[in-house]
Amino acid sequence: MRSTRKNWSHLPHDLLLQIAKRLGLIDLLRFRVVCKDFLHASSTATGENEVESLPWFLAYGRRSRECTVISYTRGSTSTKIHTLNLPQLQGGAICLGSNQGWLLVFQRGSMFFFCPFSKAKIDLPDFPCTKLKTYHTAAFSCPPWSQDCIVIVITRIDNGHIGLYLLNGGYNNNNNNNWISYKFNLEKSQLHNIEGGAYYYGETFYFSTAVARD
């Protein structure tokens, strides 16, 4: 007798995508490892349904393509650890900031947005600096697909100056939108360090710093 069991990998990709878009981050990761068809069909899903309500932590090494995702369960103090294969972050990638499931990444002189769950990548216009100094931080106002997304990067230029670089929304419309650069006099003794505490709230960007003390 012929088996009546259906092969889940034969489901239409449009249907699989609609399912994937309704999944949270961790369930999306599980969905993607079922088979190649599930992985391909969910390429544009981001798991953003739970991004705002459930915190997650991404740890990666600059020389390894394996990344660790630590997730927290709602209403519980327990954590779950998952491993992702992300060659996009291999080779000197520096994560400058994150917002709603997207990372702002600097790598080999280029700046781009990257979603570790869908592996979607959005390139940004050429950044004014080919290298980042020891002290740097960044933030962006909303997900990169929004026309209102504003990106701000702060980095130390030398011992006497810091640079602020601003990119307004609309950069993904090929409208020749470029970075706007500002240079400020600030001795290293006045600002000992720039910590990675940049964030956007309301209509204002905030940056936490460690001020040197005698």
UniProtKB/TrEMBL annotation:
Domain of life: Eukaryota
Signal peptide (residue range): none
Pfam families to which the protein is assigned, alphabetical: Beta-prop_KIB1-4, F-box
Residues annotated as domain F-box: 5-38
Protein name: F-box domain-containing protein
Organism whose genome encodes this protein: Rhamnella rubrinervis
